[in-house]
């Protein structure tokens, strides 16, 4: 079953679909390493999409477009096998080729797709329309500038909602104007000049930017790939800023620099240009060179355009300046030289000079020099110049050559064309040829000019037969170029003047437009009305010929009014002409709703908007008629003039009126627009008074007061109405009778029930009536005032930190008629240095606990609590003493679970010791070294709960015992750590061997240089004999420089190594010379036997701290010498082990076994006849406990 697995490409924008679940080994789906980029190119130019594709097996590449097919006539698909690049080429762009293109890469394992857009800038002759000075400009309502700013930054999906918000209904006009504004903004952003190739071989282009954000990022791309740049002028690409001007430069242009350059600012590509280098030809090519071995060979060529550098290759390998090759360029950058120094037979081959697509090559032949093997003498050049041999230096005299070749010229038929080239000498004559035939000045239309080093061929009044390939020859050199004579569509100026005059007709009539033109056939003729192409139908007739075209519009309607454009196009270019068609008709109705300027008892003044379309003629009058609401008849008001407003003074106060409005022009009267009902003299009610304030409350009366409204409705306030509502009810009831308004701005409400809770609101009254009521007052109980509460009890501190304090208390006791119940509490705080109390909570709290925040560490404060209710605040209750902002006292304690007491550091490394502790109040921390304050070079960092000691670069004299003392008011705690600073030990000096007692050897050595610096330094000795052939430790933890090794057997060779050891580890060994004790020759005793074990060692398991006994039996004659080992380390000299050998029974006792005693134990018995060993294992178990 086929699968479709979506994969992610490394190149953004590439979509990959895999056809199989698992790819076979070595196979790969198609992918783009370089994708085609979107292009914006002028009509008539060349457009090329480039892509580099990978995949195995090699994918099949196809191209497609969204609209239409790709044919072989105008599109060319190319694959460059050398670079692996796939191209879609469009040689001469036309407008209809603008589209979205897709590139498909497909093999049997998947497909990759990428899209790119081609935008084409249309080239045409634009004729501006002529405006009739007598025509009145139609006034359009101005749109808020914020509307356009919103659209500039909004998504397209939000356009509709923004237009609805600002009342914009002309979507087509809005989009057109928005596009213009975006173009204006881009023009404000960047004023660009094309790339210019300078005489010194560099290239640059300028950008003038006014960026809103000075931090905007600027990127430059070449053929879709971002190129790095720097402000340094010596690098390949540079970008310098001077004010608002940015200059992008290319240092030392070479053929690889040609391509499409794009400038991007904040993700928007604002400029594109195609940089093309002029074709560089070889005026003098390199010649074959024959040189003897050890000589220098020179290749030299002359090119047609200055270049700082050309590419040299030798035997298909690029050549660079160095010890073997010198590359020289003349001051005018036209003569380029390659010097092959000190030629050898291997240098023989083909050498080539390459300038872009052109190249020339020659042979270097090297002959063997049998006469001498010494190098030929060379001429030593100055520093920076080529070192060239004085033998066989072939310098070519270029003679007269072209310093500037011909360039292709395109001319319009009937105009002049000029072909120009430049020679290196003024005296040389040039001969001109057209299509191989010599050109002579036989007519006045041909002119050959010699101007200094310039040679010109001027062809006047060009005709089509003048097109062809022209060549200029001088002194055997030549340069060629093509002249193309084009015949684009052209319009006679008088015909154009007549055409652009507006055509004005009445609706239902016919309109005709005719225009004559000349140009090369075939020509494509198109007519447009307001940008839409006109095609023949019942009301549109189009006549076309090779010299003119006529458009006939029959039975024209008002909507046909607008721009009439003709567009004529052939292979040489495009031209346009624009005229105007005005179709006159009666106007559309005026637009509503009306805006009321004034509506009073004396008049109604209102205005409206003009018709959306005046029918092509100005408004001469508006015709009005009026109807009083409630009546059937309409009163004619007549014509009021062209102004869209009316003031009606014949009205009755309080009546409502409706109006019909029609617009009149020379072409007729519009349909009527009917207004909404308009009332003469509308009522104005007063605004709401202020919120009623509760002055006092009793069980049978509540006193209120309020302020007058700020808006009185333009008349005097006649009085006020009061309403009340019980808590929990939705109904408002009137307090005063409606016909008896309250005159004053205060009132005593007596219609209340004791124990109920009420709220009140007030409304003002003027001549128009009662206005909106005020906002309700706060709820109030109908009861006599309460007594303030008493003091709180049991006030205490429950918790504290350096910035907070938690309090707790009990509510005060109640006494009927003296102290009522507390409804809330206020906590007050006073710093010790401030006599004023401040409240910690702005609103009373109902809880009997509170936490004060934001205290100053270790500061002293006084605290009190005040109980409150509706009767006021009670007496405050203070704490008995001041409090300090700190946690409860805690004696210093170290909190680290494992505290180090010994640290070894390598000299030069930094040492850090951390101690964590807890203490309250914050303790003082002090560090000592060996009982004295630490040196200044030691850094101590303290926090409230930790301390760190750091030695930045430790040295040996930093060794010592460091003590930390943590102390506060409650107590102190100390801890110590020994820091030992040492280094890798240096080996001891030479090792000497001496035999003082038979069967032993005394090993002595020169002390290590570190012995005096490190009191823990000691030595270890290992032994190697010719029988065992391995190294065994015979002594360890030696603090002197001498040791006697026993059990030295005759007839064996011994070597000894001495190591230095300290806390850092082991040094390199010092090795002794070979020590050998000669075997004594004597008579063999038949009773002599080699050693053997009659009873071997047994495996032992012993609990920790118990005694362990090991034994074995050894026989042999002469008596064997027995040595005990643990993990290959000799134990015979270790006092921790009790070793005996009685009558061949060898035993070893460990009095108190510890974990370090676990391991492999070996007994070795040796005599003159041999050696034997026996091994066992000791396992130490955990310590036993007894209940």
TrEMBL record:
Principal location class: cytoplasm
Residue ranges of domain Ig-like in the record: 30-119, 398-484, 892-982, 1091-1179
Locations listed in the record: Cytoplasm
GO annotation, cellular component aspect: cytoplasm
Keywords recorded for this protein, A-Z: Cytoplasm, Disulfide bond, Immunoglobulin domain, Repeat
Keyword check for Cytoplasm: yes
Pfam families listed in its UniProt record: fn3 (PF00041), I-set (PF07679), THB (PF18362)
Gene3D superfamilies for the chain: Immunoglobulins
Signal peptide extent: none
Domain Fibronectin type-III: 589-685, 688-785, 788-889, 987-1080
PANTHER family on file: IMMUNOGLOBULIN-LIKE AND FIBRONECTIN TYPE III DOMAIN-CONTAINING 1, TANDEM DUPLICATE 3-RELATED, TITIN
Descriptive protein name: Immunoglobulin like and fibronectin type III domain containing 1, tandem duplicate 3
Gene name per UniProt: LOC116051466
């Amino acid at each position: 079953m086929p699968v479709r697995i979506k994969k992610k490409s490394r190149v953004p924008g590439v979509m990959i679909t895999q056809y199989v679940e698992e790819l076979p080994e070595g196979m790969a789906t198609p992918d783009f390493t370089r994708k085609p980029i979107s292009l914006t190119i002028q009509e008539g130019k060349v457009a090329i999409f480039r892509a580099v594709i990978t995949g195995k097996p090699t994918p099949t590449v196809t191209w497609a477009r969204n609209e239409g097919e790709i044919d072989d006539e105008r599109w060319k698909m190319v694959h460059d096998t050398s670079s692996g690049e796939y191209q879609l080429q469009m040689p001469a762009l036309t407008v209809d080729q603008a589209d979205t293109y897709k590139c498909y890469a497909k093999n049997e394992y998947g497909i990759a797709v990428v899209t790119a857009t081609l935008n084409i800038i249309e080239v045409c002759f634009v004729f501006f329309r002529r405006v009739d000075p007598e025509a009145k400009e139609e006034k359009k309502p101005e749109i808020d500038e914020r509307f356009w700013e919103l659209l500039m930054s909004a998504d397209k999906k939000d356009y509709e909602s923004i237009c609805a918000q600002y009342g914009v209904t002309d979507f087509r006009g809005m989009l057109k104007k928005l596009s213009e504004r975006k173009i204006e903004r881009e023009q404000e952003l960047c004023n660009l000049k094309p790339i210019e190739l300078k005489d010194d071989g560099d290239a640059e282009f300028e950008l003038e930017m006014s960026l809103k954000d000075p931090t905007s990022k600027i990127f430059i791309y070449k053929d879709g790939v971002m190129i790095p740049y720097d402000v340094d002028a010596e690098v390949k690409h540079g970008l310098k800023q001077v004010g608002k001007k940015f200059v992008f430069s290319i240092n030392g242009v070479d053929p690889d620099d040609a391509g499409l350059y794009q400038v991007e600012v904040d993700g928007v590509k604002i400029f594109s240009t195609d940089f093309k280098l002029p074709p560089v030809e070889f005026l003098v090519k390199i010649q074959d060179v024959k040189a003897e071995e050890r000589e220098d060979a020179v290749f030299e060529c002359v090119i047609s355009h200055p270049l700082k550098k050309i590419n040299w290759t030798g035997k298909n390998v690029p050549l660079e300046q160095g010890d073997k090759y010198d590359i020289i360029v003349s001051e005018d950058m036209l003569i380029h030289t390659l010097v092959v120094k000190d030629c050898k037979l291997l240098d023989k081959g083909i050498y080539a000079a390459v300038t872009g697509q052109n190249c020339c090559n020659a042979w270097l032949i090297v002959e063997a020099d049998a006469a001498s093997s010494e190098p030929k003498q060379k001429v030593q050049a100055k520093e920076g110049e080529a070192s060239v041999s004085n033998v066989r230096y072939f310098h070519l005299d270029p003679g007269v050559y072209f310093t500037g070749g011909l360039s292709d010229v395109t001319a319009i038929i009937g105009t002049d064309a000029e072909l120009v080239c430049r020679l290196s000498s003024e005296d040389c004559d040039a001969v001109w040829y057209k299509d191989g035939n010599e050109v002579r000045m036989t007519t006045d239309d041909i002119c050959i000019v010699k101007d200094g080093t310039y040679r010109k061929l001027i062809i006047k009044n060009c005709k089509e037969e003048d097109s062809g390939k022209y060549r200029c020859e001088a002194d055997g050199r030549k340069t060629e170029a093509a002249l193309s004579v084009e015949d684009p569509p052209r319009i006679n100026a008088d015909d154009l003047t007549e055409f652009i005059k507006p055509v004005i007709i009445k609706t239902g009539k016919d309109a005709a437009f005719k225009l004559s033109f000349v140009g090369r056939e075939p020509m494509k003729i198109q007519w447009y009305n307001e940008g839409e192409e006109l095609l023949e139908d019942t009301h549109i007739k189009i006549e076309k010929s090779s010299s003119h075209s006529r458009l006939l519009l029959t039975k024209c309607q008002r909507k046909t009014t607008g721009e009439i454009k003709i567009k004529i196009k052939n292979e040489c270019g495009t031209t346009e002409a624009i005229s105007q068609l005005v179709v006159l008709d009666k106007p559309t109705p005026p637009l509503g709703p009306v805006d009321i300027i004034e509506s009073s008892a004396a008049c109604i003044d209102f205005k409206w908007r003009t018709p959306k379309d005046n029918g092509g003629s100005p408004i001469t009058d508006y015709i009005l008629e009026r109807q009083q609401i409630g009546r059937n008849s309409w009163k004619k008001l007549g014509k009021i003039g062209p102004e869209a407003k009316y003031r009606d003074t014949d009205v009755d106060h309080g009546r409502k009126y409706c109006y019909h409005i029609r617009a009149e022009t020379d072409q007729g009267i519009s349909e009527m627009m009917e207004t909404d009902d308009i009332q003469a003299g509308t009522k104005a009610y007063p605004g709401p008074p202020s919120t009623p304030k509760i002055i006092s409350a009793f069980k049978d009366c509540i006193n209120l007061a309020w302020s007058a409204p700020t808006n009185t409705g333009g008349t005097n306030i006649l009085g006020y109405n009061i309403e009340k509502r019980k808590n929990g009810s939705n109904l408002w009831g009137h307090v005063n009778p409606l016909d008896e308004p309250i005159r004053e701005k205060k009132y005593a409400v007596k219609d209340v029930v004791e124990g109920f809770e009420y709220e009140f609101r007030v409304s003002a009254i003027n001549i128009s009536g009662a206005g909106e009521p005020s906002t309700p007052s706060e709820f109030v109980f109908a009861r006599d005032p309460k007594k303030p509460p008493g003091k709180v009890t049991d006030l205490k501190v429950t918790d504290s930190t350096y910035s907070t304090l938690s309090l707790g208390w009990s509510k005060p006791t109640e006494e009927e008629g003296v102290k009522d119940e507390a409804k809330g509490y206020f906590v007050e705080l006073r710093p010790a240095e401030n006599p004023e109390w401040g409240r910690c909570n702005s609103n009373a709290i109902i809880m009997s606990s509170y936490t004060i925040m934001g205290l100053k560490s270790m500061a002293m404060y006084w605290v009190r609590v005040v109980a409150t209710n509706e009767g006021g605040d009670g007496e405050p209750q203070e704490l008995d003493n001041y409090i300090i902002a700190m946690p409860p006292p805690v004696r210093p304690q170290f909190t680290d679970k494992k505290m180090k007491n010994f640290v070894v550091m390598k000299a030069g490394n930094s040492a850090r010791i951390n101690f964590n502790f807890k203490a309250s109040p914050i303790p003082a921390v002090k560090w000592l070294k060996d009982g004295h304050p630490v040196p200044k070079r030691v850094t101590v960092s303290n926090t409230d709960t930790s301390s760190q000691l750091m030695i930045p670069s430790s040295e040996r004299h930093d060794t010592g015992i460091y003590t930390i003392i943590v102390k506060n008011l409650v107590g102190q705690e100390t801890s110590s750590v020994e820091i030992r600073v040492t280094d890798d030990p240096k080996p001891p000096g030479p090792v000497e061997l001496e035999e003082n007692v038979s069967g032993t050897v005394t090993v002595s050595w020169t002390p290590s240089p570190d012995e005096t610096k490190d009191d823990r330094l000691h030595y270890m000795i290992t032994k190697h004999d010719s029988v065992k052939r391995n190294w065994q430790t015979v002594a360890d933890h030696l603090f002197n420089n001498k040791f006697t090794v026993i059990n030295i057997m005759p007839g064996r060779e011994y070597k000894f190594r001495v190591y230095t050891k300290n806390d850092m580890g082991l040094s390199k060994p010092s090795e002794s010379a070979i020590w050998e004790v000669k075997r004594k020759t004597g008579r063999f005793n038949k009773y002599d036997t080699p050693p053997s074990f009659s009873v071997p060692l047994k495996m032992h398991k012993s609990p920790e701290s118990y005694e362990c006994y090991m034994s074995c039996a050894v026989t042999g004659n002469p008596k064997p010498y027995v040595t005990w080992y643990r993990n290959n380390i000799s134990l015979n000299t270790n006092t921790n082990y009790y070793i005996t050998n009685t009558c061949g029974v060898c035993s070893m006792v460990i009095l108190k076994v510890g974990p370090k005693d676990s391991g492999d134990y070996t007994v070795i018995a040796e005599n003159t006849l041999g050696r034997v060993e026996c091994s066992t294992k000791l396992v130490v178990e955990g310590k036993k406990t007894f209940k």
